[in-house]
Design brief:
The protein is mostly helical. It has nine helices and no strands.
Length: 208
């Protein structure tokens, strides 16, 4: 009998608890899960609203951010160029930046042609025959061809060709730095600090 009374008492307690919870649900008209979902939705809506307000401000830094990424790539590429022998530079760049689809050899040759034209036409420091040789030779074979064609040359063709590539990247880096500086100046003129606009840009685009 004692056990039955205890069981009955526990059942009454459970019934009372269920009644209390039911009354509370009726009063709140939402269960805890629904309430949590509603709060999260409201919070997300608020975040989206704030982001929308800041989106126009973030647009001010779009070009500057692109230039910064390009500058970072150029600086890293230059490190690879300086660290490798001329014949290995194109391969080393492809290995270091597999995401970049570039025909480095043709780019290098184009830069070399431009540099030699400048040396011939402006500095008068190179014979025209060297330019003709460059134009009909694969980039990877240019130094070897120079050395065999001019065996008595007192300079170092490999160092001179590599210097053209180094100066090429240094020019790219200078251009990007100038473009970033111009973008920052426009933001300053608008009365805002570029560092603040950059922070907003990264926040809007989810960049850490």
């Amino acid at each position: 009998m004692a056990d039955n009374s205890k069981k009955l008492y526990m059942e009454m307690q459970m019934d009372e608890l269920k009644s209390t919870l039911a009354a509370q649900e009726d009063e709140d008209d939402l269960d805890p899960l629904e309430e949590m979902i509603k709060e999260q939705a409201a919070s997300k809506k608020k975040v989206n609203k704030n982001t929308e307000k800041e989106r126009e401000l973030a647009k001010m830094y779009e070009d500057a951010y692109i230039y910064e990424q390009e500058l970072d790539t150029f600086e890293k590429e230059l490190e690879v160029v300086k660290a490798n022998n001329l014949k290995d530079i194109a391969t080393a760049l492809r290995e270091a930046f597999p995401e970049l689809i570039k025909d480095y050899e043709n780019e290098f040759k184009a830069s070399l042609v431009t540099a030699w034209k400048h040396n011939i036409e402006v500095k008068k420091s190179r014979p025209k025959e060297q330019l003709e040789l460059i134009e009909k030779t694969k980039f990877i074979e240019i130094v070897e061809t120079f050395n065999s064609t001019y065996p008595d040359y007192e300079g170092n063709f490999e160092n001179e060709v590599k210097l053209v590539l180094v100066k090429r990247w240094e020019m790219f880096i200078d251009i990007k730095k100038s473009e970033i500086e111009e973008e920052h100046e426009e933001i300053y003129i608008a009365g805002i600090k570029p560092s603040y606009v950059k922070r907003i840009y990264k926040q809007v685009h989810g960049i850490k």
